[in-house]
UniProtKB/TrEMBL annotation:
<dbReference type="Pfam" id="PF13487">
    <property type="entry name" value="HD_5"/>
</dbReference>
<dbReference type="InterPro" id="IPR006675">
    <property type="entry name" value="HDIG_dom"/>
</dbReference>
<feature type="domain" description="HD-GYP">
    <location>
        <begin position="93"/>
        <end position="282"/>
    </location>
</feature>
<protein>
    <submittedName>
        <fullName>Response regulator</fullName>
    </submittedName>
</protein>
<dbReference type="InterPro" id="IPR037522">
    <property type="entry name" value="HD_GYP_dom"/>
</dbReference>
<dbReference type="InterPro" id="IPR052020">
    <property type="entry name" value="Cyclic_di-GMP/3'3'-cGAMP_PDE"/>
</dbReference>
<dbReference type="InterPro" id="IPR003607">
    <property type="entry name" value="HD/PDEase_dom"/>
</dbReference>
<feature type="region of interest" description="Disordered">
    <location>
        <begin position="1"/>
        <end position="20"/>
    </location>
</feature>
């Protein structure tokens, strides 16, 4: 009974008007209790929550059995995609994927006033460094996307932690350190971004193995991963944070060179960054 009440409460949160939320509510009850309860909740809430015409259509489909059979298909996502009218299908072209990455970067950076345009800054620095170091144009392109999406995992971290003006507790630090892993989980679930997932999620790794989230050492970090790590540190140190103001560029470079000397950041990548800064390209 208590679980049933929770399902009603959950379904109610997802409805915005009597004519919406039917599919959401049916799915909740179907998953939790099976088709009989799913049909019962739709019938019970007819007129009150849901448009009666929609409920009648749903119940008619449910009676045929085809609806419940379709929900049991092994590749449900593909089955749903095949229902899309041909004239409304959008192909995931490289241009559209770039726009998608940039749009998500804006969403990510809008989460906190202290990360305004951070993802774009990391993407720009990473792409410039990758090109400067002579890597192929395809890698430069991937680095742009990885930079734009590297912090998507932060959407899963509370702003009370991200914007905290003082030192973080051990528990809070642990939660922050989860975000690269969350980035990896998100990107590996999107087929066109799977190839950049590992690089994007490596932006806090260190050559000495003392970074996170995997704590891998130099042997397991690709050149693009090393570049992104330096680009991320460069842009982060150059921006305001809740616990400190933005640092002048000279101090930023001094810190990065020190870390490269301690085998935390790649000396080659830091040198490339410094060269670009000296030329006014960053």
């Amino acid at each position: 009974m208590a679980r049933d009440t929770r399902m009603v409460s959950r379904a109610r949160r997802h409805r915005s008007s009597p004519g919406s939320g039917l599919a959401q509510t049916v799915e909740v009850f179907y998953t939790a209790f099976g088709p009989v309860r799913a049909e019962e909740i739709a019938r019970t809430r007819r007129n009150e929550w849901f448009d009666p015409t929609l409920v009648d259509v749903f119940l008619a489909e449910a009676r045929t059995g085809r609806l419940w059979e379709s929900l049991g298909e092994p590749d449900l996502a593909r089955s749903v995609s095949l229902m899309e009218p041909p004239d409304r299908i959008l192909v995931a072209t490289p241009e559209r994927l770039d726009l998608t990455a940039r749009a998500f970067a804006w969403i990510i950076d809008a989460k906190s006033p202290f990360t305004y345009r951070h993802s774009e800054g990391v993407a720009r620095a990473a792409a410039k460094m990758t090109e400067h170091m002579g890597l192929p144009a395809s890698v430069v392109h991937d680095q742009t996307r990885a930079g734009l999406l590297h912090d998507i995992g932060k959407l899963g971290v509370s702003n009370r932690i991200l914007d905290k003006p003082g030192p973080l507790t051990g528990e809070e630090c642990a939660k922050v350190k989860q975000h690269p892993g969350l980035t990896y989980e998100v990107l590996t679930r999107v087929a066109p971004f799977q190839n950049i997932a590992e690089v994007a999620a490596s932006h806090h790794e260190k050559l000495d193995g003392m970074g996170y989230h995997r704590g891998v050492s130099a042997e397991e970090l690709s050149v693009p991963s090393r570049i992104l790590s330096v680009a991320n540190a460069f842009d982060a140190l150059s921006q305001d944070r809740p616990y400190r103001p933005a640092m002048p560029i000279e101090k930023v470079l001094t810190i990065l060179k020190k870390e490269s000397g301690q085998q935390k950041l790649s000396p080659d990548c830091v040198e490339a960054l410094e060269d670009l800064v000296s030329k006014g390209e960053l």
